[in-house]
Input
Amino acid sequence: MNNGYNNEEVMDGDISDEEFERKYLPCIDNFYDYMKKFVIPDVVAFYLANEYDKDCSDECPLVNHINSALDIFNIIIEAKELIPTIEMILKIKYNLKIINRNPLKLEKNY
Output
């Protein structure tokens, strides 16, 4: 997984590359996997629901809205990978349905 870091940025010279890759990189990767699976989709769904509730959504594609929400995280994620999970969270948690992706249009899911 591309977590946005390389060895030079993380290491200060106290450990070897091998120790970093064996000991620390798996922990960092697990953290980013957790963020990608659980935290980020929930935050992006909140971001979209909040825009809908406040009627302040711009006329742009869903991917642009997702990328705007992703700007708060220091992580590299393909926005399209998140769409199915975001759609599920919008439906279950916020009772919203995406009816159009370009431009983004949401409606209450009755």
Notes: The two ends are 38 Å apart (CA to CA). Helices lie at 7-10, 17-54, 62-70, 79-94. The mean pLDDT is 89. Residues 40-108 form one domain.
